[in-house]
């Protein structure tokens, strides 16, 4: 009995359709794993809520709200939304590195499927998970008193910027996982993620930092997204007169596009060369 192996498509539209179909198959595989192991997903959703409660109620009384008044949690939540997008990189890294370490990725590479399908499928699953996490965070924010004040269109644009940041960062996570290949190395990634969070405008004004450190904080992609989201939601922000602060919306689009343009092709190329 012979097994027919499908002929790889030749034209660009056929190859794109092939990659999307195979990518969706891998996405459904990842979603099925989450359905069988919901504890991992639940813990990932509860951690940001714990951080919101900690900052909002334990430290909130000691925080200086920009403008000298208002609800601190309205200032806090946009930074927490961006934080959730940043921390998702750890889940991406762990999932991809685990598949590589267990040989699952090698089995995928031996199958007659699009070479980009595995990384595309992983990105699709993680984006769906990020949408769910963002919805949970919005519910948490509404429960603690956060509101948006600039209309539904602006709010949807803010959510789009947050997901755009997550889309860019997940490619960073995929590339690093394919490069390092060991799930245990997620500790190294965590050491990098926390400074990115705190070296930003999410919880502290860059103006309170030494001048050179404040510039780095304002140039942080997380700061750009947080500032732009605060503006679109109509929530209080740190402001600032620097070029970086005045062009936060432009940077909130430019940084993710740049990161995606760098790490997406690197991820696909690294996947194709895993045995080298």
TrEMBL record:
<dbReference type="InterPro" id="IPR051784">
    <property type="entry name" value="Nod_factor_ABC_transporter"/>
</dbReference>
<dbReference type="Pfam" id="PF01061">
    <property type="entry name" value="ABC2_membrane"/>
</dbReference>
<dbReference type="InterPro" id="IPR047817">
    <property type="entry name" value="ABC2_TM_bact-type"/>
</dbReference>
<dbReference type="InterPro" id="IPR013525">
    <property type="entry name" value="ABC2_TM"/>
</dbReference>
<keyword id="KW-0472">Membrane</keyword>
<dbReference type="InterPro" id="IPR000412">
    <property type="entry name" value="ABC_2_transport"/>
</dbReference>
<feature type="transmembrane region" description="Helical">
    <location>
        <begin position="80"/>
        <end position="104"/>
    </location>
</feature>
<feature type="transmembrane region" description="Helical">
    <location>
        <begin position="248"/>
        <end position="268"/>
    </location>
</feature>
<keyword id="KW-1133">Transmembrane helix</keyword>
<feature type="domain" description="ABC transmembrane type-2">
    <location>
        <begin position="39"/>
        <end position="274"/>
    </location>
</feature>
<keyword id="KW-0046">Antibiotic resistance</keyword>
<comment type="similarity">
    <text>Belongs to the ABC-2 integral membrane protein family.</text>
</comment>
<feature type="transmembrane region" description="Helical">
    <location>
        <begin position="38"/>
        <end position="60"/>
    </location>
</feature>
<keyword id="KW-1003">Cell membrane</keyword>
<keyword id="KW-0812">Transmembrane</keyword>
<feature type="transmembrane region" description="Helical">
    <location>
        <begin position="125"/>
        <end position="148"/>
    </location>
</feature>
<protein>
    <recommendedName>
        <fullName>Transport permease protein</fullName>
    </recommendedName>
</protein>
<feature type="transmembrane region" description="Helical">
    <location>
        <begin position="154"/>
        <end position="179"/>
    </location>
</feature>
<keyword id="KW-0813">Transport</keyword>
<feature type="transmembrane region" description="Helical">
    <location>
        <begin position="186"/>
        <end position="204"/>
    </location>
</feature>
């Amino acid at each position: 009995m012979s097994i027919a192996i499908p002929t790889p498509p030749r034209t660009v539209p056929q190859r794109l359709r092939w990659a999307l179909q195979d990518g969706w198959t891998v996405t459904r595989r990842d979603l099925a794993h989450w359905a069988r192991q919901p504890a991992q997903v639940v813990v990932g959703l509860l951690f940001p809520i714990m951080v919101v409660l900690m900052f909002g109620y334990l430290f909130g009384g000691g925080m200086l709200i920009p403008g000298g008044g208002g609800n601190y949690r309205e200032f806090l939540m946009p930074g927490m939304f961006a934080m959730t997008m940043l921390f998702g990189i750890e889940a991406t890294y762990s999932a991809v590195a685990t598949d590589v370490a267990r040989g699952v990725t090698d089995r995928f590479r031996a199958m007659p499927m699009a070479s980009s399908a595995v990384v595309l499928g992983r990105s699709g699953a993680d984006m769906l998970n990020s949408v769910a996490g963002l919805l949970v965070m919005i519910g948490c924010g509404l429960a603690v008193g956060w509101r948006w004040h600039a209309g539904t269109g602006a709010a949807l644009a803010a959510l789009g910027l947050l997901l755009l940041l997550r889309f860019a960062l997940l490619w960073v996570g995929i590339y690093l996982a394919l490069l390092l290949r060991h799930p245990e190395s997620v500790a190294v990634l965590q050491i990098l993620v926390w400074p990115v969070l705190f070296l930003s405008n999410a919880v502290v004004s860059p103006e309170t930092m030494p001048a050179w450190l404040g510039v780095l904080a304002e140039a942080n992609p997380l700061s750009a997204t947080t500032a732009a989201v605060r503006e679109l939601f109509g929530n209080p922000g740190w402001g600032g007169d620097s070029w970086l602060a005045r062009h936060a919306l432009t940077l909130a689009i430019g940084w993710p596009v740049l990161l995606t343009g760098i790490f997406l092709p690197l991820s696909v190329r690294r996947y194709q060369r895993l045995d080298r």
